[in-house]
Specification:
54% helix; alpha+beta; flat; 5 strands; SH3 type barrels
Length: 226
């Protein structure tokens, strides 16, 4: 009886914890966005209207995006960016915030492929993301020292994949994985609990849709199941 009650209790926790976390995050996000312009609108109207501040904030974001995508808006933002870059304390905060927003919103292509790297020592493996290849004289110098082309691999940390470090490895030390970048990020954020499903290998077929001769020979040569 005690074991059965424990099983029911754990099953309830497994259902309620994800729901509670989701509702809590959505509630926090709603209050944050609604409180950005909400108090000013409520003071003007004389009474609170829940959700009106959220709608006004979303409309303001769209309006700023509309303005900054034309030529005049780009020039204005370039002038503002240049002015902020000349203020000592503001420059550091603004640069870090801009880099984080660019990375989170994927304004630039960051991760190209999920790879497995033997790091930080032999016998230990870590998941990384190929971010690109250095071109020009620097690549020639690195390739001369490593013996082949060198790849830029970002090694993220868990559970925050946006922090990590960059290492440069020769291609022979990089093993590509057959999972998408999204699945690789889920695996890191979850601490290995969200395991992606690998795509199944499809047996080669002939043009008429029947299994090819290689596939038939492999099945014929395989040992019978007991």
């Amino acid at each position: 009886m005690r074991l059965r009650l424990r099983t029911y209790f754990l099953a309830g926790l497994l259902v309620l914890i994800p729901l509670g976390v989701t509702v809590g995050i959505l509630s926090w996000l709603f209050n944050l966005l609604d409180g950005f312009l909400g108090p000013h609108i409520y003071d003007y109207l004389g009474h609170p209207v829940p959700g009106l501040g959220l709608i006004a904030t979303v409309l303001l974001v769209f309006l700023i995006g509309l303005v900054t995508t034309n030529i005049v808006g780009r020039r204005v933002m370039a002038a503002v960016d240049g002015a902020l870059q000349h203020i000592p304390l503001v420059r550091s905060i603004y640069t870090i915030a801009k880099q984080m927003s660019d990375s989170l919103l994927q304004r630039h292509v960051n991760f190209q492929q999920v790879v497995l790297v033997e790091y930080p020592r032999r016998g230990l493996y870590q998941i990384g993301f190929v971010t690109g290849v250095i071109e020009g004289p620097l690549q020639d110098e690195l390739a001369a020292r490593a013996g082949e082309r060198v790849l830029n691999v970002f090694m993220p940390t868990t559970p925050n994949p946006m922090s990590g470090y960059l290492i440069m490895l020769p291609e022979r030390d990089v093993q590509p994985l057959r999972i998408s970048v999204q699945d690789g990020l889920k695996l890191l954020v979850s601490g290995g609990m969200a395991i992606p499903a690998l795509p199944r290998k499809v047996a080669p077929q002939s043009r008429d849709g029947s299994p090819s001769r290689e596939g038939a020979q492999s099945r014929e040569g395989s040992p019978p199941r007991r």
